[in-house]
Amino acid sequence: KSIMVLNGPNLNLLGKREPGIYGAHTLADVEGLCREACARRGFALDFRQSNHEGVLLDALHEAGAAQAAGTLAGVVLNAGAYTHTSVALHDAIKGASVRVIELHISNVHAREPFRHHSFIAPAAIGVIAGLGVRGYALAIEHLALACPQDA
Ligand code: DQA
């Protein structure tokens, strides 16, 4: 079984992008820590990033099908700024009936008011925000425990 980690817009810039907020880790570093977290629980990792909303929608549809087929435990989704704008992502999660944990590196609730609303949260099983890149590993740990290999 696998776990999908899906990253949205601008997350390819991690490491260079506002390091005071997002830290010095690159997206490749995040992929490495996700791979370790998955391996620890015997899961494969499907790690993706796109700056394009439609590509994220297609990935969620694919994830829903894989979850229904029993080959995917769920998705860790850092939708970046689309979190705060995208009804389409909300609808994709609901429509594909896919298990999603919403993830943010920064504590969006301690930042600008336009980051306080999430279209993802009502469709997600839970939300992790503000724990830095370690949040990805914690989200993976939850999916691994909640959806074991034999379930
Ligand atoms: C983010 C928070 C969002 O508000 C922002 O647009 C991002 C990154 C985070 O991981 O903290 O791109 O999702």
From TrEMBL:
This is 3-dehydroquinate dehydratase. The record marks R17 as: Transition state stabilizer. PANTHER family: CATABOLIC 3-DEHYDROQUINASE. NCBIfam families: aroQ (TIGR01088), PRK05395.1-2 (NF003805), PRK05395.1-3 (NF003806), PRK05395.1-4 (NF003807). Catalyzes a trans-dehydration via an enolate intermediate. Pathway: Metabolic intermediate biosynthesis; chorismate biosynthesis; chorismate from D-erythrose 4-phosphate and phosphoenolpyruvate: step 3/7. Transmembrane segments: none annotated. It holds the Pfam family DHquinase_II. The keyword Disulfide bond does not apply. It comes from the Bacteria. It catalyses: 3-dehydroquinate = 3-dehydroshikimate + H2O. Keywords: Amino-acid biosynthesis, Aromatic amino acid biosynthesis, Lyase. HAMAP family: AroQ. GO terms for molecular function: 3-dehydroquinate dehydratase activity. Substrate binds at N78, H84, D91, I105, S106, R115. Belongs to the type-II 3-dehydroquinase family. The active site is at Y22 (proton acceptor), H104 (proton donor). The keyword RNA-binding does not apply. It comes from Pseudoduganella umbonata. Its EC number is 4.2.1.10. Homododecamer. CDD domains: DHQase_II.
